[in-house]
Write a structure and sequence with these properties.
This protein is of the alpha/beta class. It folds into two domains: 170 residues, Rossmann fold, CATH 3.40.50; 91 residues. Helices cover 31% and strands 20% of the residues. It has ten helices and 15 strands. The model has no long low-confidence stretch (mean pLDDT 93).
């Protein structure tokens, strides 16, 4: 385990700053560049057809592999569009779940084991219908068939899934930016950094506000800062709520996170005045088939909403979910999005 973590840490440093390992992998990155360019060219020239939904499609994705904060952005987008008169639906891959040939469509309290943790969280947080399948076009068709009232589709991830035509592309990145600027595996990028110039908006997840916001203008892409504001904690076993400030000054508070960047969650808690006696970073999409908390000596263990979706079966009264809500430097972000959708609506 120590060797695996050490290797992952080395690769993370190389992906951010470059180095001997990154340079060694550059020939493989050239193959990635060729494959990415070829695929994009095929969709642009029509040799590979893309499904054009009868309603507008907003894709929220990233070019940096792994977690950058897409899920809170998807939830905020669904809520923002609904507040402006739309009836949104969501399509997602359903990471880690065997879906089968047909898309799986549901809403409300969905099982993470059947839909994936992020789709289940999005469905619970927004109430919007969610359709999951690795083929986003198939998921979109199934969503519209089951929910014909949906008049805009929000794609959770899928920037590189060009088989689903889109009207708006939003990239979510974090403080790592584009890292060393190289494509996989020499760097962390799924597509060249120049792809950021082709999208409609770049949302940077900064963790906590710490300086002047970017100037809002009409240039494309639109640059916006996002940060995550924590709400009151909710006990997973029992449903009691407690103000996050109640944990400040307590000596035996721990935190765990199975997300793309666990340290971001821990930093959010520390910024709220909580001293963490211990932290447990877990792999993204950790399944919690067995409890990783038995050896933790803590009065309370704070976890993310994405983890809480899967932790109910553990029946551990120490577990408390800390929900977060996205906030933005641009108060007109979703007004802009709604107007852009009206201008680019299919047909």
């Amino acid at each position: 385990m120590t060797t695996t973590r050490s290797s992952a840490s080395l690769l993370a440093r190389q992906w951010q700053h470059g180095g001997w390992l990154s340079s060694l992998l550059l020939p493989l990155s050239a193959l990635t560049a060729w494959a990415v360019a070829r695929k994009r060219r095929q969709y642009l020239d029509g040799s590979r057809p893309a499904y054009r939904a009868p309603v507008p499609v907003v894709v929220i994705g990233n070019v940096y592999v792994g977690g950058t904060g897409k899920t809170p952005m998807v939830i905020a987008t669904v809520d923002g569009l609904r507040a402006r008169g739309y009836t949104p639906g969501v399509v997602s891959r359903g990471y880690g779940v065997k879906i089968g040939p047909d898309a799986r469509v549901g809403s409300g309290a969905l099982e993470a084991a059947r839909y994936g943790d992020e789709p289940a969280l999005i469905a619970r947080a927004t109430g919007a219908p969610v359709s999951v399948h690795p083929k986003r076009a198939l998921a979109a068709r199934a969503l519209l068939q089951a929910h014909p009232d949906v008049d805009v589709i929000v794609s959770d991830d899928g920037l590189q899934h060009l088989a689903l035509a889109r009207d708006i592309e939003i990239v979510v990145q974090d403080e790592r930016g584009v890292g060393n600027g190289r494509l996989l595996p020499a760097g962390p990028l799924r597509e060249p950094a120049s792809r950021l110039q082709d999208v409609d908006a770049v949302v940077t997840n900064i963790g906590t506000p710490n300086g002047p916001s970017p100037t809002i203008g009409t240039a494309r892409p639109r640059h916006v800062q996002m940060w995550l504001e924590p709400g009151a904690a909710r006990q997973i076993e029992g449903g009691a709520t407690r103000a996050l400030s109640a944990y400040a000054g307590q000596p035996r508070i721990a935190a765990a996170a199975g997300i793309g960047n666990p340290e971001r969650f821990f930093s959010t808690l520390r910024a709220a005045g909580i001293t963490l006696a211990s932290t447990l970073p877990l792999p993204d999409h950790h399944d919690y088939a067995d409890s990783p908390f038995q050896a933790m000596t803590a009065d309370a263990i704070l976890v993310t909403s994405k983890d809480a979706i899967k932790c109910a079966a553990l029946h551990d009264s120490r577990l408390w979910e800390v929900p977060v809500q996205a906030a933005f430097s641009d108060p007109q972000l979703f007004d802009w999005l709604a107007q852009a959708l009206r201008q680019r609506a299919p047909g």
